[in-house]
Write a structure and sequence with these properties.
Strand content of chain B: 25-35%
Strand order of the largest sheet of chain A: 3-7-1-14-11-12-13
Structural class of chain B: alpha+beta
Radius of gyration of chain A: 27 Å
Oligomer: heterodimer
Structural class of chain A: alpha+beta
CATH topology of the largest domain in chain A: Aldehyde Oxidoreductase, domain 4
Largest sheet of chain A: 7 strands, mixed
Largest interface: A-B, 29 and 22 residues
Number of domains of chain A: 3
Shape of chain B: globular
Strand content of chain A: 15-25%
CATH architecture of the largest domain in chain B: 2-Layer Sandwich
Radius of gyration of chain B: 19 Å
Number of helices of chain B: 11
């Protein structure tokens, strides 16, 4: 499994650089930060999902002893005339502006020096609303006369989203289309046509460290200390909101306690900045675990998929229609719609494909990126669909997949050729680890067993840029300046390993300087499996430049070619004392071709392909529907594993997370109100939910243009896990479930339905 | 959380004096595990909390009577003290087993059995077990004391019959030779979760014939509830599938179950039928 290498750094499971600091509780988090004179903000939230605000009464809160100030949008408008933000649309007000669009939306903030007083004062605020009809379901939102936004405001910040216009007079924020070949002809030539509809539920990121940001505005400068995955974007967006040059905004990010895509773009940063401007004091907001449900979540979606298949098992045509429930504000939903849209026909070589993918607004909490940018939701549909076709036509599920799998050099539906995507190897390895050749004892009594597999892929956000600086100090020690945020995935360690490999030094000796936009260069964000590939390449380039400069310095000092005089000695000779620096920079942006707006065709739609496959064995108690996942196998293509242990941790962590999104996690809404907004009632899996057998492995492969052959690994095992479990359930009970999550009740209901004795609705 | 007064009286007289207030924001507390969550959520804003921690004697200890016919358990006994008591493990093993799926080590180390009852939360695991075991609670106040079946503490969803100034001092739990007990914590989401149903059964049977049964349902109902109709079907019956089915049906008929995030009413009724039967089979071997 582990690539054999003579390298001292690549392919080595060195310990995390911050491990000691973390286990001794000394590592720095924003939650620990207190600035002199700092005020704490607590948010007053709407309790209705869609309404005009008639009035907000802050008088009692303002009168409470110890309250510094109570702030509404009227106060913010005085310091920020256009207080709307967002990465795709400038659609989100810093505080509710005349209207609330989801239950839980921030309406006012109490500032106090004591957070308990702020909390108490929030309880004294009242608001009067004029209720508006709400729209909550994504399919309803496509045609609803209820509009969440009267006006659509594209942001045009990112090149891949510059064509965004939205459809005015509708709830559609973005529609993405792909056309490849001639689907009508493909369906006409098919022997069998299958059409199924699948649904996924709303879930949330649940980082252990809830959102937290501190802003300190003074003298026309803003300093933000924030738990953010994208400090460079925060700086750009705050600078835009305030009309400041970028060098007047400083964004500092220490370690994060998890992010998973939630802490991207702007979250609390605009709010704390505005509050600090109004109050002229530093302001901190720390959300509670419960408040996280109202910040950002993952898109529910409804996916209608139709395939034409020959009697020999060749898929000739496929049509995908996906509606993404984006909630009240677009956040990065349009990118989810587009990125997950273009791979939604699955990792299969289908000549005729059409895809329509729609991001719609609804009156739910906003949805954004979550570990996979929509790929897990689409794989739930296309890989359940694969098994349903195979079942209907009596095909072997592995052979049917192998027959249709995309192979090296073949065009994917976007027209981009498949390169370095180890789909076959991943599938082969999975089949082996599942012992697929040995029949499973499926049981005949109350307990039934089944197994299933699934395979998926994803494109990577493009085009995006990473910049790195390698700074060799006077004594020859090395600082690495990068904007990549280590949120638990281990990027500090991996980036140090890449730099160390080039510079031929010990990775653990490198000091990784955490994101501080006054110091570290630009990075698009720690997201979408991009850091190892993009920032890793920038780090490699920066280290190579530093290495070349060291060699040049040696020549300048008259050293013989290939001499190995240490850098400290070279610098001492040059400057006459321990002084000076060698600075290498690296900047990387992969090649990209903007997809055609009508057909989605592009020769370079993604810098690389993320590939993951999963297999599951389940046991079902047919008397109750109770399901136990007894075995789970995740196999990924990560290219070269720079740090095998951390890759495994990524694979298993993503797998466990997706296990929750498959079986237990579900934000339940009634009339637009979240009814289970706490961890007591929104159940993430714990150790007792782990499968007895849990295998996480990667295949030997190489991403040729990645740093030392590596590519991203953070999302690979989220993609195919849900359909693998869904397929195993179908194998066990002979019933195909189409909606997530799979719960004991949903299984039992399906069994009763099939028995002709359906369970009553309530 | 606004500031409040925390007092730790060392004798009952002082405790009653400190609790002698009409204000519902003056409350006694045991381990505080439930109260702290309510305070964090701003559901409860105390003015004064009266800790029973230092009252000693009557409120502490697990004592088996000399004739080994009953336990006296002080109300301030923590769950982990119960969990690790050798005598409890011998004479009331259902308690020891229940602890394995109840909360977590940190909570069990501080939560007390008196506070657990006074909280009145129908989802708690231990109250239905006390009911099935036929436990009684000694309630004291400044004018006297009364010994009541644990069942009578509960008046509804988070509601009890305890008055301001009442303290649960101790539990009296009979040791009933030949009776076997079981608690089934039925979860429907993650494995470790609040129960969708808590089913506690205590049965005396001989050769498949049931001589005595107490069956209790919690979590799916507004308070721990004896399944009297189901008990009546079992009592005197020889256990077979038909009897178990009839008991399950009777149980479903005699309680009111509502839909919540752990399951629809229809599904939870079905689970009651299945798991009540399984729990009875577990203790009777039928």
């Amino acid at each position: 499994m582990v690539a054999v290498t003579s390298s001292p750094n690549i392919g080595k499971s060195i310990d995390r650089l911050e491990a000691r600091e973390k286990v001794t509780g000394r590592v720095e988090y924003v939650h620990h930060l207190r600035l002199p004179g700092m005020l704490y903000g607590k948010i007053f939230r709407s309790n209705v999902p869609h309404a005009r605000i008639k009035s907000v009464d802050i008088s009692a809160a303002q009168a409470l002893e110890g309250v510094y100030q109570v702030i509404t949008i009227d106060d913010i408008r005085k310091v920020i005339p256009h207080p709307y933000y967002g990465p795709a649309f400038h659609d989100q007000p810093i505080l509710a502006d005349g209207k609330v669009r989801f239950a839980g939306e921030p309406v006012a903030v109490v500032l106090a020096t004591d957070k308990r007083i702020a909390e108490e004062a929030v309880g004294l605020i009242t608001a009067e609303y004029e209720d508006l009809p709400g729209v909550f379901d994504e399919v309803d939102a496509m045609t609803s006369e209820t509009l969440v936004h009267d006006e659509l405001k594209p942001a045009a910040t990112f090149p891949d989203l510059q064509h965004l216009k939205g459809r005015s007079g509708t709830n559609v924020a973005l529609d993405y289309h792909l056309l490849h070949g001639d689907p009508d002809a493909g369906f006409a030539a098919s022997d069998h046509i299958f059409e199924h509809t699948f649904r996924t539920q709303q879930v949330m990121h649940t980082p252990m460290e809830p959102f937290v940001s501190v802003a300190d505005v003074q003298e026309g400068r803003v300093t933000l200390h924030t738990a953010s995955q994208g400090p460079s974007f925060v700086r750009i967006e705050i600078a835009r909101l305030l009309g400041l040059p970028e060098n007047r905004v400083r964004v500092v990010v220490p370690h994060l306690g998890g992010g998973f895509g939630g802490k991207l773009y702007i979250k609390l940063e605009a709010l704390v900045t505005a509050l600090s401007m109004v109050a002229q004091r530093p302001v901190k907001i720390s959300l509670t675990m419960e408040e996280q449900f109202y910040m950002v979540t993952r898109h529910p979606c409804t996916f209608k998929i139709k395939s034409g298949v020959t009697k020999e098992g060749k898929i000739l045509a496929r049509h995908c229609e996906i509606v993404w429930n984006g909630g009240a504000y677009a956040d990065i939903g349009p990118r989810v719609t587009q990125k997950a849209g273009f791979t939604s026909a699955g990792p299969y070589d289908i000549e005729n494909v059409s895809i329509d993918s729609y991001a719609v607004y609804t009156n739910r909490p906003p949805c954004g990126a979550l570990r996979g940018f929509g790929a897990p939701q689409t794989a739930w549909a296309y890989e359940r669909h694969t098994d349903m076709i195979a079942d209907a036509l009596g095909f072997d599920k592995i052979a049917f997949r192998r027959q249709n799998l995309l192979r090296e050099g073949r065009p994917q539906a976007s027209g981009t050729l498949m390169r370095d995507a180890a789909l076959d190897q991943v599938l082969d390895h999975l089949v082996d680890r599942m012992n697929w050749d040995i029949p499973l004892d499926k049981g005949t009594g109350r307990i039934r067993r089944g197994r299933g597999i699934a395979i998926g892929f994803k494109g990577i956000t493009a085009p995006t840029t990473s910049v790195a600086i390698v700074n060799m100090y006077g004594d020859g020690s090395c600082g690495l300046y990068i904007g990549t945020v280590d949120m638990g995935q281990g990027s500090d360690t991996v980036m140090a390993q890449i730099a160390a490999e080039v510079l031929n030094i010990d990775a653990a000796s490198i000091r990784v300087i955490h994101p501080d936009t006054d110091v570290t260069p630009y990075d698009m964000g720690t997201l979408g499996s991009r850091s190892t590939f993009h920032m890793g390449t920038a780090v490699r380039l920066a280290a190579e430049e530093a290495k070349a400069k060291i060699a040049a310095l040696a020549v300048e000092l008259g050293m013989p070619e290939g001499s190995n005089v240490p850098l400290a000695e070279l610098l001492r000779r040059k400057y006459g004392m321990q002084a000076g620096n060698i600075i290498g920079t690296g900047s990387f942006i992969p090649a990209y071709e903007k997809p055609d707006t009508k057909t989605g065709q592009s020769t370079k739609a993604t810098p690389f392909w993320g590939v993951g496959a999963a297999g599951a064995e389940v046991e079902i108690d047919t008397e109750t529907g109770h399901i136990t996942v007894t075995k789970l196998v995740n196999v990924a293509d990560v290219g070269t594993a720079i740090n095998p242990k951390m890759v495994q941790q990524q694979l298993s962590g993503a797998g466990i997370m997706q296990l929750g999104f498959t079986l237990t996690e579900n934000m339940v809404f009634r009339d637009g109100q979240l009814t289970n907004g706490s961890l007591a009632d929104y159940k993430i899996p714990n150790l007792l939910d782990m499968p007895r057998e849990f295998i996480n492995e990667y295949v030997e492969s190489r991403q040729k243009d990645g740093p030392f052959g590596a590519k991203g690994a953070g999302e690979s095992t989220t993609i195919a896990l849900s359909p693998a479990i869904g397929n195993a359930v179908a194998d066990a009970i002979g019933i195909h479930l189409t909606d997530l999550p799979i719960t004991p009740e949903s299984i039992f209901r399906a069994l009763q339905e099939a028995n002709g004795t359906p369970l009553a609705g309530d | 959380m606004a500031s409040f007064e925390l007092v730790e009286p060392t004798n009952l007289q002082d405790a009653f004096a400190l609790l002698d207030d009409e204000d519902p924001a003056v409350r006694p507390f045991g381990g505080g595990t439930a109260l702290m969550l309510m305070m964090k959520a701003q559901l409860f804003k105390p003015v004064r909390l009266v800790s029973l921690r230092l009252l000693g004697q009557q409120f502490d200890g697990i004592a088996l009577s000399a004739d080994k016919s009953s336990f006296r358990i002080g109300a301030m006994t923590t769950f982990s003290q119960l969990e690790h008591s050798a005598e409890i493990a011998t004479y009331l093993p259902v308690i020891t087993k229940t602890m394995r799926t109840l909360a977590n080590v940190r909570v069990r180390n501080v939560a007390t059995i008196g506070g657990n009852l006074a909280h009145g939360d129908p989802h708690l695991d231990l109250p239905p077990v006390w009911l099935a075991l036929g436990a009684k609670a000694l309630i004291i106040n400044k004018t006297g004391e009364r010994l009541i079946p644990v069942e009578e503490i509960f008046a509804g969803y988070y509601e009890t019959t305890l008055e301001q100034g009442d303290l649960i001092a101790e539990l009296h739990v009979p040791v009933r030779p030949g009776w076997r007990s079981h608690y089934a914590k039925v979860t429907t989401r993650a494995e470790h979760d609040w129960p969708a149903l808590g089913i506690a059964v205590s049965v005396l049977s001989e050769g498949g014939r049931v001589k005595g049964a107490s069956l209790v349902l919690s979590a799916a109902v507004d308070r721990p509830t004896r399944l009297v109709a189901a008990e009546n079907i079992l009592r005197g019956a020889t256990l077979d599938d038909a009897v178990l089915r009839a008991a399950g049906e009777a149980a479903v008929e005699e309680v009111h179950i509502e839909t919540d995030n752990r399951g629809s009413a229809a599904y939870k009724k079905h689970l009651l039928r299945v798991h009540l039967g399984r729990a009875i089979q577990t203790v009777t071997g039928a």
